[in-house]
Design goal:
It contains 6 helices and 8 strands. By secondary structure, the chain is α/β, with parallel strands linked by helices. The longest helix has 29 residues. GO terms for molecular function: ribosome binding; translation initiation factor activity.
């Protein structure tokens, strides 16, 4: 008899617990779900005078740029910080100047050459330099050898100098230990004044001949 009563008590206790759990679940379902906040990208904002205005949400910086009638340009400079991306407020003229600077900046190329190089391979190297020059590159050449190959180093340099004299400028020629180093640059573009002088001199000669 006692066993039956104990079993009934346990069953009733379990029923109460189940009903309580169900009630709590219903209440949780009725509660309004919290909106998950969207992650906003933080950026370092820089004004037109290179002053850091602090960390701002990206959408806020875009609104500010539109309000001030300015452009927002990404700048990669460690002075503005390395953790967050930096954006600078710029005028149209400033943006054009920045683009022209990057387009005219020369790419650095390095070319080591052994003084024992064959004539055919040397011509190939010179052709490579000529291709780089057409792309506005700055080529740093190092002709290497040893103590006994000073004459070969000089001959290799003179051969390259002769092949490149009409299409380049060779500057900063220097001897360091067992290597001869120099820099090859694209030829200078003649200024408009020089062109005008050449045209004037030609026209003057034509008049004299007539």
């Amino acid at each position: 008899m006692f066993r039956v009563l104990n079993c009934l008590r346990r069953v009733n206790h379990l029923r109460c617990n189940i009903s309580t759990v169900n009630a709590l679940r219903c209440e949780e379902k009725k509660k309004p779900k919290k909106k998950v906040s969207e992650t906003v990208e933080l950026v370092t904002l820089v004004d037109t005078n290179d002053k850091i205005l602090g960390l701002k949400p990206k959408p806020e910086t875009e609104k500010l740029a539109r309000k001030l009638n300015l452009l927002l340009e990404r700048v990669d400079d460690p002075k503005y910080g390395k953790i967050y991306p930096a954006y600078k407020l710029m005028t149209k003229d400033e943006l054009l100047k920045a683009e022209t600077k990057t387009s005219t900046a020369r790419t650095l190329k390095k070319l080591p050459i052994n003084c024992r190089i064959s004539e055919h391979d040397l011509k190939t190297k010179v052709q490579t330099i000529q291709k780089w020059l057409t792309k506005n590159c700055e080529v740093h050449v190092a002709i290497t050898g040893n103590q006994e190959s000073a004459a070969s180093i000089k001959a290799t340099f003179e051969s390259m100098q002769g092949q490149l004299k009409d299409v380049s400028r060779i500057i900063d020629v220097r001897q360091k230990e067992h290597a001869l180093k120099f820099i090859v640059l694209p030829p200078k573009i003649p200024s408009t004044n020089k062109k005008e002088k050449i045209v004037e001199s030609k026209s003057g000669k034509d008049k004299d001949s007539s």
